[in-house]
Structures are given as structure tokens and as C-alpha cells.
């Protein structure tokens, strides 16, 4: 895809990275589209994934689809996040430092049957959505086309948004880890941070984030990251 063919909002989010869309969680449940908690999507509900550390079933946390990521980015796929709910975590399910997690890419599908690896036992969940485009300061204040003397200036760059968001620059990820992702041909898609807080559903709590974020990166193809090849990891 040529740069000129990319929709203006996707350019700002994933190419120029001057803007992001804050993620939010809505208490209203829905069975399709981007969502949090509840029974896992039918496409992945047949088999539990196991934690590589403790062997416990990974809990289904959330699914992001094209309604949040952009249909051109999602490419008719969905990305679901799973995190360990077992013994390597301590008393509460949490997406945080040192806690096992994984991302599974699958066909978009509605919630399947209830499993024993969902954090709300009855299967009720929440909706995930994203707000409108919001300016997001870039990590590097010196942009192409800026006067050359700016490159040597100790520029007081404001940090990128560190809350949960889609697009823009990653919030906490700096230095070699960020450079390594780009070198692998991956682009930042979204992050889940502690502003989403402790999500309670059916009297069970799942803590999203700590002092850092969970990052989702996708293979860059035609200037945009996509769900064709996805990696997820946390940095706290
Ligand atoms: Zn575990």
C-alpha cells in the first residue's frame, strides 16, 4: 500500500505517530467486536493455552479487532490477550511485571462457550473501545525537516502518552528494546497500561498493568503494522 493510499487517521496513528487513540473499557457487555473478559472467542475456546512457567491455564483477558485497531490494520483478524492466572502470579490475576502472557491471532468470532479459563466465571464481559484521535508527543522531538541546529539542542521533549492507547509512539518503551522491534520489521500497535486499572466482573478482579505497559506490535507491511504477524510483550 502506498503512503498516499493510507487513510489520514491511520497515517497519524501508525506512520507519522503524532496522534493516538486512548483505549477505554465500557461496562456494557457485547459478544462481538473488541471486548474484555467474559468467555473467550469461539475461535480459540476449544483449547486452553498453558503458562510456560507454572503450567496453569492462561486466562482470557481481552480481544481487539478492527473496530479499535482499524480494519486495514486488523485485516479481518482479531488479537486476543491471555495472561497467567495461576501460581506464578500470586493471589490476583494481573497483567504485570514478570507475569506470563501471550497474544493469539485468530478469526474474529463471537464469545464461545464458557470455559474454566475465563476470569469472570459466568462469562459476562465488558466492551473495549477507543476514543477519537488525540495529539501524542513523539519520543524524538527532532523531526525530519527541522532546522539542523535542533538536533544538538537539549530539547525538552514531552513523553508520549503512557496510558492505554492505539497508535502513536509507545509509552514506556525506549532505547534498545524499541529499536530491536523496529529492526525486526515490527511496528507498535497498541499498549495496555494501568490506567485501565482493576477490572471487576462477577466479583473477580483482574489487574491490568503495573508501572509499565503490555505492548502489541505487528509486522509492518505497506507502511502500516498489521495483525499478520504479531508479537506481544510487557515492559515494566
Ligand atoms: Zn503461570
What is the string of SSEs from the N terminus onward?
A: HEEEHHEEEEEEHEEEEE
- Rg over C-alpha atoms, rounded to the nearest angstrom: 18 Å
**C-alpha termini separation:** 34 Å
Total number of distinct structural domains = 1
Helix coverage percent: 10-25%
CATH class: Mainly Beta
List the helices and strands and how they pair.
Layout lengths: L7 H8 L3 E8 L8 E3 L20 E7 L1 H4 L1 H4 L3 E7 L9 E2 L5 E6 L18 E6 L3 E2 L29 E2 L9 H8 L2 E8 L3 E5 L2 E5 L4 E9 L2 E12 L1
Parallel strand pairs: 5-12
Antiparallel strand pairs: 1-7, 1-8, 1-9, 2-3, 2-7, 3-4, 4-6, 9-10, 10-13, 11-12, 13-14
The protein binds zinc ion (ZN).
The site of zinc ion (ZN) has 8 residues, from loops.
Structural key phrases:
236 residues, Hypothetical protein YwqG fold, eleven-stranded antiparallel β-sheet, 14 strands, binds zinc ion
Amino acid at each position: 500500500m502506498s503512503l498516499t493510499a493510507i487513510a489520514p487517521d491511520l497515517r497519524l496513528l501508525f506512520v507519522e505517530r503524532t496522534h493516538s487513540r486512548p483505549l477505554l473499557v465500557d461496562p456494557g457487555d457485547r459478544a462481538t467486536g473488541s471486548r474484555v473478559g467474559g468467555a473467550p472467542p469461539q475461535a480459540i475456546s476449544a483449547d486452553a493455552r498453558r503458562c510456560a512457567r507454572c503450567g496453569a491455564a492462561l486466562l482470557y483477558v481481552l480481544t481487539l479487532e478492527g473496530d479499535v485497531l482499524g480494519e486495514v490494520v486488523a485485516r479481518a483478524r482479531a488479537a486476543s490477550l491471555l495472561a497467567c492466572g495461576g501460581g506464578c502470579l500470586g493471589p490476583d490475576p494481573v497483567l504485570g511485571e514478570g507475569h506470563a502472557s501471550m497474544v493469539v491471532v485468530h478469526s474474529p468470532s463471537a464469545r464461545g462457550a464458557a470455559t474454566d479459563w475465563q476470569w469472570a466465571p459466568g462469562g459476562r464481559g465488558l466492551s473495549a473501545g477507543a476514543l477519537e484521535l488525540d495529539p501524542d508527543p513523539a519520543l524524538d522531538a527532532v523531526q525530519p525537516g527541522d532546522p539542523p541546529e535542533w538536533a544538538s539542542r537539549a530539547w525538552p521533549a514531552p513523553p508520549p502518552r503512557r496510558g492505554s492507547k492505539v497508535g502513536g509512539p509507545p509509552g514506556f518503551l525506549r532505547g534498545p528494546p524499541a529499536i530491536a522491534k523496529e529492526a525486526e520489521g515490527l511496528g507498535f500497535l497498541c499498549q495496555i497500561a494501568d490506567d485501565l486499572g482493576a477490572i471487576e466482573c462477577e466479583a473477580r478482579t483482574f489487574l491490568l498493568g503495573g508501572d509499565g505497559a503490555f505492548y502489541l506490535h505487528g509486522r509492518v507491511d505497506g507502511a502500516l503494522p498489521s495483525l499478520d504477524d504479531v508479537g506481544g510483550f510487557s515492559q515494566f
